[in-house]
Amino acid sequence: MSNLITPDALNAVGEALYGPRWQSGLAGDLDVAVRTMQRWAKSGAPDSVRDELKALLVKRGADVAKLVRGFEMRELFGNEVTPQNIRSVYDDVEQMYLSAKADGDREEVRHWDDTMQKLLTEMSAEQRSWCLDDLAEVPESVRKELWSAIQKQEND
Fold this sequence. Notes:
This protein is mainly α.
């Protein structure tokens, strides 16, 4: 006898992916009849769909994370994410970093270094390029992370 995905687990996955009326959406993604999905919702789904369910959840999680990053970018840069306002915010943060470094304030340096890294990791490769025409002033840790992120995006 094969392992079943419990009705509770299947219902939780279905609702997380599609809301309270999840059965037809999940049936379509798993390429099964709606009637089959309704039966699984009551008696459990075969273990053979576990990997597909996990892949759907991972994809939805990535989609949600992308939306959250978009909201965070709008909080930082306003409704228009343009080269000019991204560069302006990045320049302000970079200036704060350089000022803290000149003052020898290690805590502030760490704070602004972390802020620059956060900004850079939330930007697309194109947006990062708008900020980095002068890498000489960018901390080494940020440069390394930036170049690896750019290379990763170019390889994807």
